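Would you be willing to look carefully at the protein I have copied below?

:::
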Amino acid sequence: MDPTSFILPLFGILLIVLLVWLAGGRRTLKLTRANVREALAAEGYQTSSVTVADDGHTALAWLESRNALAILRSMGDHPAILIPGPDDIRGISIKGDPPRLQVQFKSYAQPPIAIILNDQESLDRWRKVLMLYGELAVRKEAAS
């Protein structure tokens, strides 16, 4: 077997990976209050409250126009917006110090989110919102 038949394709793959990396292929948008509000406004939503995780990968927003929760995640160069219904959330938990708010979804297609909230006011606000979502889901299941 000719050694160049193995080395040349490997070198080509490494060159492509290097070029993608140099072009910013692993770029991720860091969420801020401003770009979260901007992304939601582009979709036609008005927000009254926005909390961004310290790492800038996840944000929670309350949509005044729909009276609903919006969850935003950093996906490459753009934020992905999820507006879950009450029956989409499986559970919430708060663990650790500083408190880490975790939200699990019923759909396996939606990975759980975790946001460290150093501000007690933000923690209380979002805990109440998510508990309300849980209560609405229980009422919906009982009515069925």
